[in-house]
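Incident review: delayed structure delivery

Summary: a single-chain prediction request sat in the queue longer than the usual turnaround. Root cause was a stuck worker, restarted by the on-call engineer. No data loss occurred. The affected request and its eventual output are reproduced below so the record is complete for anyone auditing the incident later.

Affected input:
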Amino acid sequence: MNTKSLCFILAATAFCALPCVGQKKTDKPVPAGLESLVKQFFADKKAQAHILATKEGRPQLPEIWDFFEAGENGDWTRVAALYRGLRRGAYQYDGTRKEPLLATTVWQAVNESFGVYEECAHGEEKYVTLFAREILGSIPRGSVYFGGTDPGRWLVTAFSKSHTRADPCFVLTQNALADSLYLKYLRLMYGDRLDLPSEADSQKVFAEYVAEAGQRLKDDKLKPGENVTEEEGKVQVSGQVAVMEVNARLARIIFDANPKREFFVEESFPLEWMYPHLAPHGLIMEIAREPLTALSARSLKQDRDYWKRFTDKALGKWLTLETPVEAVCDFATVVFERKSAGEYKSDPGFVRNDYACKTFSKLRSSIGGVYAWRVTNATSAAEKKRMAKEADFAFRQAFALCPYSPEAVFRYSSLLVEQGRKKDALLVAETAQRLDPRNGGFAKLVGELQESQ
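Output delivered after worker restart:
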């Protein structure tokens, strides 16, 4: 098995570890400790929606106001039912119809409200609160925060003192910048304080990407997962990679246009331009104003210490820099496969909550990805070795936090293969396959690793 093959599997499958809004299997009530926060959020967003509707001067579906009212009253069954009906007509989802009245900025407030409900309802209350407060508490006031995954976007939005007033920070997502209505929504909400791309900027970015993608198609140099075709002389692009390429360019415009603000990101899909600028920052990452030639020893130690404190509380005090892969797989077998506490003293509230495991594993995988990028781009053997050590530990922690996370498994396996540790890579893949036998990607990875040995 070669590294290029493994990286393609990673690009194609691993970055969708967390479900999209409205896609979780069950509707649940909001825990009592979070309910007042969610009710207030619905009330705030209803007020914002009325202002947006007035500015647009367009009629709104009555179900929208029923939805907000149900949220204010804590009627979560009705909230979920109304949202499912609305979602089927929303412009950015593959529903049974397209409702023109939902192609508005008001829909953005509806979508945010339901996202907040879902995250609070499905996450472990302790870790939902920790997640949001740790992130918000680490960001200086007035900063710009890009939230990528569902929890990274919705929970930080919910726990902000005021999302619409950017208190304490501007909260937006890099994932939806290619959506012109989302950009319009941001301009209406933040445009008097934050320099944001215009509609013309958005169209220019898309045209530039299409032209470059068309040239890559001719040169047979398309990126992994990039869907580009040419029909009657016209280039067509589609798929997640293409959308994220446009999102990345628009995020860069926002970064460059606001040089006096500090920027932070909770990664969903890796954005190439950010990697030279990224440094670990607690659960998330800071986007440095200038590219970083190297990550300081102090920064690396702070990162290790931070995540060691977290894994000690969530998994028990056993995972260290020296812990071998075999021991991590043993932990996964005992705690996640056999559902036994064993001798590990892990927190049941964490290891028995699938969403908490995936959420925090994703965060650690993202930081590990920065270290792995620096391994590839290191200019000296010493720097390559230093970053490889950090990447190994970060991915080992991410795997321990959720040993059935596709992103943790594929990214860690890729690093292990690059280091010539195919036996460890196979052990990781086999453990993941046992924990999630329905994941065909794990079975394929096991087969390719077995064949390579």
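Verification: Confidence is low (pLDDT under 50) at residues 1-22.
Action items: add queue-age alerting; document worker restart procedure.
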